[in-house]
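Internal QA ticket QA-208
Title: Verify multi-chain structure generation after dependency bump
Assignee: T.L.

Test input:
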Amino acid sequence: MKFEESRQGGCIIIRLLETRLGADKAASFKDVMAAYTHSDCKAVVLDISRVEFIDSSGLGAILSVLKQMQHGCELIIAGATDPVASMFKLTRMDRVFLMYKTAADATERIP
Amino acid sequence: MRILIADDDEIQRDLLSTMLESEGYGVVSVCDGTSAWQQLQTGNFKIVFIDWMMPGLSGLELIRKIRSAEFEHYVYIILCTSRSSRADLVEGMRSGADDFLSKPVHQDELMVRVSSGERIIAFEKRMGDDNRKLAEAHSSLQKAYATIRADILAAAELQRNLLPAPSRLKNVSFESLFCPAQLVAGDIYNFFPLDEQHIGFYLLDVSGHGIPSAMLSVGLSKMLTTTPIQSSLLKRPLPTAPFHMVVSPEIAIEELNRRCQGNGDMYFTIVYGILDVRTGLLSITQAGHPHPVYLPTSGEVVMLGDGGFPVGILEDVHYDCVSQQMQVGDRLLLLSDGLLEARSASGEQFGMDRLIRVLKETRHTPLKSSLKTLEDTLREWVGAEFDDDVSLLALELGEPLAGHGVKKADDDKRNPTGGQ
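Actual output:
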């Protein structure tokens, strides 16, 4: 799972560099995120602007990471592309995660 | 280790023989090529010294004969020659000799050549042993694979047998498609009577693929039943007539969600619907699953529902129920995302628009042939095996059974005062 890490204003931004988050990548995605679930920060922003497709295993992996997040640290989704955004809407993930158009929007809005 | 010497010169034979025996080797000497060949058949010699010039079968001819024969082990050939011309040596090696030894032979040089030969022999033996082990491992793997495959085929059949055949329940006809991507599927569907007036039906899709998803799907199909009523999610007993109550879809799914927590990352999406066969009223809950498609006999196609949470992964969430009034002749389709997401060779998804187009084009053909056309169109679109499970459950509301009315679209026009 290729990704980039950066920090901005109390948030950690994890930008995924893969175009598909599917069954084959779900396990390595969780391994990557495991390093950040107990971070001492206000939020972990998952930037999925490069991801064009997430399947059921990918969604399961993201929800699994959400459940691991330490209290007080939010998991925020940024940059969902149209197909991913409509899948999130269908599964009401937009009521489970805070979602922003860009990682920058997310970091600005976090107090 | 036994060594064979083939040389017509007695002095050379004895010299070589003595040197080798003094180093502890067992030696057999012969004076011509033919005898050497005979010895090789029976004697298990791994190193052979062959003289270049011999009467009858020459050294070169013997070498070629050895190389084209299939001995059980490698025969290391050292060509002995008093000729020193390079062309001769090259010809000898090309015929298959591994090394050469010039006469007169010196013991130290002789022994290093023999050591070289022993290294090659040892290597060849190791290779032979490794190959034997590989062949055994391969054979075990083949047997294991055959067993596993037989098990999966049995599981696939078990799963298939759980699926209902196309049939008519009261005045509702059901047809379906089931195309697993692998032998077993994470998709499953069913339809069943809930009571005199209601039919329940669902299509669900477990996340992931393969055996774990299939196992959960089978488990879920066993949970979505009306009996025994005491523990059923779909029907509750009542202390007074009519002694039962059909559970509204969103309540049923909420309880199902509660009971299905704790499957790791696995979850499922489902559409569960209840149809009142007398009134034609449909109540449906969509839980993270693609929208069911409502196909009236005339008028626009409607994608029902507003989304919903998947089941089994978030605790304490609520689900919604939407209603749709159906008329005689109307159709409803539940489908899995494998159908919508099926990709062509160029990577384009089949999509809801294309699906709706096919359904509209086949609107007035029988439901079964409409689904067949859809399946054919989908297979042509993909042009290869499906890489996700494709499943579909369709129903068509028929004329009401005697005595009870489902309103037809033009009933009100014929009976302006209303009623039947």
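Spot checks passed. Residues 2-129 of chain B form a domain with the Rossmann fold fold (CATH 3.40.50.2300).
Status: verified.
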